[in-house]
Amino acid sequence: MSKKIFSGVQPTGNLHLGNYLGAIKNFVELNNDDANECIFCVVDLHAITIKQDPKELKKNIRETVATFVASGIDPKKSIIFNQSGVAAHSEFAWILSCVARMGWLNRMTQFKEKAGKDKEKASIGLYSYPVLMAADILLYDATHVPVGDDQKQHLELCRDIAQKFNNDFGVENFLKVPEPLIQKVFSRIMSLKDGSKKMSKSELSDLSRINLTDDEDQIITKIKKAKTDPLLMPKDIKELEGRPEAQNLIGIYTSLNNSTFETSIKKYAGKNFSDFKNELSEVVVSKIIPISKEIKKLLEDNSFLDSILLDGVERANKIASKKIKNIKEIVGF
Ligand code: AMP
Ligand code: TRP
Questions:
Q1: Which ligand does the CA of 17 lie closest to?
Q2: CATH architecture of 206-297
Q3: Measured in angstroms, how far is the CA atom of residue 276 from the centroid of ligand 1?
Q4: In DSSP terms, which residues pair with 146 in a beta bridge?
Q5: Which atom of ligand 1 is nearest to the CA of 10?
Q6: I need a labelling partner for 138 at 20 to 30 A (CA). Which of 123, 219, 232, 296 fits?
């Protein structure tokens, strides 16, 4: 079946192995299937829900494009563009913010996590962030949205918003209700320092994550220093229970090899973590270093990266401007 794919990544720097295994690896596979139409958005409007240094933001937008391309997304085939380049995203987000209910947004766990204790000081944009995300997806009639596990709740909200819009305005099926595409084997990559926390851009310790721009020595050191437990490698899946760090490292190994937990566990059953870590380092280096080298190379050519965005904005705008015109008609503008 042909799929219309839409996904977004925030240009907030430090793209890491969690972004790669949870999302970008999936983007590449979808891009490679000729039956799909794919749109990958650098969501700069989402990035500013938390304060950004404008110079850094500009650099991070280009770095996100470079990461997409270095990972294997073909910018001629798929559309790669930045969200602020297509005005319809902001326009539609406002309309949808009049459809979405406070009660729905109040349930969003990511806002609670990101706003922390002092919710009064969080930006209004951080609160309504999932509404903008719904606008992104619904503008392009996306059928499938590849994301990491942490975005599942936002996608459910997007589905609710689409259905309410269609009901409120009596336009059955006008907004397409999208399906999430979440990696099955291993969808939530955890911090290398704490198996109960997700690997994240904003974590203070750089040792907690493998950045897609790390060099070989950095990767080896980080895996060597990654937290484990005092037991030997598990002999079966059951022995992984209650061992989040072991589960995470074996998950990373499994996902990078496109394998299964069973196969990985069988290979290292009863061995020391240090033996496993050596091989894990080798796999991470062999998959990530080519990407890291390509990112660095691409970052030397800003005009090439900018031309990808320019072309992407033009193509995205063609689709989005038609949809927003119909939306305005439906709303009564
Ligand atoms: P963000 O950097 O927050 O824009 O996230 C970009 C994509 O990476 C989203 O689809 C996230 O769900 C995914 N992602 C981010 N961190 C992780 C993680 N630790 N594990 C799995 N997926 C992740
Ligand atoms: N909220 C997503 C994240 O932080 C990024 C995002 C914005 C997105 N718009 C989207 C993802 C539309 C999928 C579809 O990871």
A1: 1
A2: Orthogonal Bundle (1.10)
A3: 26
A4: 181
A5: 4
A6: 123
